[in-house]
């Protein structure tokens, strides 16, 4: 019996338009619980500006957010590579995270950025597999097939590559130990392909 080959789908990148679409859709979704909506908005924003992986995002604490807002940078321990990654926040990123976080003298800075439960009953970290499924499912329902949380990482690397930023800088920014890994992420957009047409 002949095996049918599965179609290798195009892995899409998140651009500014897709990011805005995701944010607007989540903000306008009245069916989402408050904590879920907050988690998705925080996730999409942080992934868009940093290119973090979801497991790395789940390591983030409110202390990291405070440092990003006040100092423009923060160090995060990466569980996958057991190394540090420095995160940076420009003006636009700061502007967006200020909208999503309230940090004052009463804030528990050791609290996680992504949580489950309510404020009233206490919040705890959310299961990694459940979180991945939730994020990817929401992205697919809004943007369609080909989009996952990794699309943010790919989109950021591709955009940096299209701006002729040195690959070593991109690699360091994104937290890759090998430049070859970074190169695999740089995928031309549809616009790049259209602009490359000579006939």
TrEMBL record:
One of its GO terms (molecular function) is DNA binding. SUPFAM superfamilies: DNA breaking-rejoining enzymes. Residues 9-198 form the Tyr recombinase domain. InterPro entries: DNA_brk_join_enz (IPR011010), Integrase-like_cat_sf (IPR013762), Integrase_catalytic (IPR002104), Tyrosine_recombinase_XerCD (IPR050090). Keywords: DNA recombination, DNA-binding. It holds the Pfam family Phage_integrase. GO terms for biological process: DNA integration; DNA recombination. CDD domains: DNA_BRE_C. This is Site-specific integrase. It comes from Candidatus Sulfurimonas baltica.
